[in-house]
Specification:
11 strands, five-stranded antiparallel β-sheet, alpha+beta, 564 residues
Length: 564
């Protein structure tokens, strides 16, 4: 029986433990060279996303086959749906998936439904696969032994990831070796010698595309690894878990993912609150700790906003045929024939913060350099129509230069490593896509990457903004407000379910191990939801999230059955 349980848990283990490890080079046509705000390069070389995308979709197909040939025949879905909390979660999961599918079908088809979008590759097929992973895992974990088996397998896979991260921290990146490069390029046909490192030596990125996702991954794994110290009886397993906890902390420090640190601190706090809330007499202490944490966090965010407040002399700039419209220190002006004019009086004017000098482009076009502080932009009207064109960092001449609307964080765009800038430009997009969304992976087409002045002011002049660095904004813009509401409600129902289960912790009896694992998973999921305020949903970490929350839901159902 135990062997059979292990076999049916293998797909869930692959989703949470193996898929994050997939690294393989794929060269794709990005389809963005036609846009002025992107380079002329037609190809995208991806190491971390496409392989995981394909693996998630393939795994979900296998899971569906098993569900229809085994789980439905054995009636496992009845046990899962007999739990009212899990039944409600499945309803909102269905709403989330339907909303995302409608968004994908209504999209303009800018991102491929098969390969996804540039530097994203989280297609609608991947999103549907997340739902399949959830359903499969929730069905297959139906006993205490299942929960212990899954936890141990998950911890073993996390150790592999932690070893990779620790080696990177000590400047021994496995992917910088000849063997590592050979593994990366195995299916690409590209010589391993052509591969060079993306990150500075000592930076931990594991196999997760970006160091930021290390913070997300550690926030998901660390509480579960810590729970293993208490759950497992064998000393070697306990020692294994303790070493893993230390290694994960080293990886988190090496990644520099501050939001991940905050999420892990919050996970510890959540675990403490859950334990205290198990006793009614200590409930007031739990409420007090929660209130203090919320107030301290709020003050920290407010202080960060205040410190990041900065007003640029040149605030807005847009091209309008034969003139360049701009705003400096709250005054609207425009440039025509190389001269600066007041937009109200239409008379010549001057600005101490703006200089206009005659210049020539590398291609030999006569024009002007508009300079304000560290910002210098070249414009030319050297054409028969006398229209102004801006020469961007890619050497492309464009008249598609806008001053996009900004709100909320428009005065503190440097907030959280200039996330304030991205959020200030993304929030207005939510209103435009609140019902249906622009489609999975289509954020890059909606974000004003043609607001060149804002890009220059915030240090994004040599890059393209592909994601909002906030999972909630990402979901609202790409798949719509309904899907975002459904996503959040899934977590709320799960949280209520957890606190309902923890109420009888002291009477746990024979399932106390399940309680500890359940608390750890809830702490992990909560840490992930906190990280989501600064990081996006990614195929690198989302499969881990959906597998763990499904395991948590199954865990709660096991506890409630024991109570009954």
């Amino acid at each position: 029986m135990k062997k059979g349980h292990i076999i049916r848990l293998i797909p869930s283990f692959i989703a949470a433990g193996i898929i994050p490890l997939v690294v393989q080079l794929f060269v794709l046509d990005c389809g963005l060279s036609e846009y002025d705000w992107f380079s002329s390069n037609e190809s995208e070389a991806d190491f971390f996303l496409v392989g995981k995308m394909a693996s998630v979709i393939a795994l979900s197909v296998v899971m569906l086959i098993i569900i229809f040939t085994y789980a439905l025949r054995r009636g496992l879905y009845r046990e899962m749906l007999s739990d009212s909390y899990n039944r409600n979660i499945c309803i909102f999961l269905g709403l989330y998936l339907v909303s995302a599918t409608v968004s994908a079908c209504a999209a303009t088809g800018k991102s491929s439904i098969i390969t996804g979008g540039y530097a994203q590759h989280e297609t609608i097929l991947v999103i549907i696969s997340y739902g399949v992973i959830f359903l499969y895992t929730c069905m297959m974990i139906d006993s205490k032994s299942d929960m212990r088996i899954f936890t141990w397998l998950f911890i073993c896979a996390a150790m592999i990831m932690a070893v990779i991260g620790v080696l990177q921290h000590f400047k021994m990146d496995v992917f910088g070796t000849d063997m590592g490069k050979s593994i990366i390029t195995a299916l690409s046909g590209i010589a391993p010698s052509r591969i060079s490192g993306t990150f500075e030596p000592g930076v931990v990125y594991m196999t997760l595309y970006n160091p930021n996702y290390v913070g997300t991954y550690v926030s998901l794994v660390l509480p579960v690894a810590a729970s293993g110290i208490y759950v497992f009886r064998k000393p070697l397993r306990r020692m294994f878990c303790a070493v893993l906890v230390i290694m994960l902390i080293i990886c988190l420090a090496g990644s520099g993912a501050f939001a991940g640190v905050m999420a892990c601190v919050a996970s510890v706090l959540v675990t403490t609150l859950m334990y205290l809330s198990a006793g009614r007499k200590k409930l007031r202490y739990a409420a007090g700790i929660a209130a203090v944490f919320i107030v301290v966090t709020g003050l920290f965010v407010y202080a960060e906003c205040v410190m990041s407040e900065y007003e640029y002399h040149l605030e807005k700039l847009a091209v309008c045929d034969d003139r360049i419209e701009l705003t400096a220190d709250g005054t609207d002006m425009y440039i025509r024939d190389g001269m600066l004019y007041d937009a109200v009086t239409h008379e010549r004017t001057e600005s101490s913060d703006i200089t206009i000098e005659n210049a020539q482009s590398p291609e030999g076009y006569d024009g002007i350099n508009v300079t304000s502080g560290d910002v210098c932009m070249f414009f030319t009207d050297d054409n028969p129509e006398k229209k102004y064109y801006y020469r961007n960092v890619y050497g492309k001449y464009t008249d598609d230069v806008v001053a996009a609307k900004a709100c909320v964080f428009d005065k503190c765009q440097a907030f959280a490593s200039h996330r304030g800038y991205i959020w200030s430009k993304t929030i207005p997009l939510v209103k435009e896509h609140i019902f249906i969304g622009c489609g999975p992976d289509n954020f890059i087409y909606e974000f004003p990457n043609n607001d060149y002045l804002s890009l220059l002011n915030n240090g994004y002049s040599n890059s393209v903004v592909t994601r909002p660095h906030n999972m909630y904004l990402q979901t609202a813009v790409q798949t719509g407000g309904i899907s975002l509401a459904a996503y959040v409600i899934i977590y709320v129902i799960y949280a209520v379910s957890c606190f309902g289960s923890f109420g009888k912790l002291r009477d746990a009896g024979g399932v106390k191990d399940v309680y500890i694992i359940c608390m750890a998973i809830f702490a992990s999921i909560t840490g992930y939801m906190i990280c989501a305020f600064a990081y996006d949903s990614s195929v690198c970490t989302a499969p881990v999230f959906w597998t763990l929350i499904a395991a948590g839901c199954a865990c709660n159902a096991i506890i409630r059955r024991k109570k009954e």
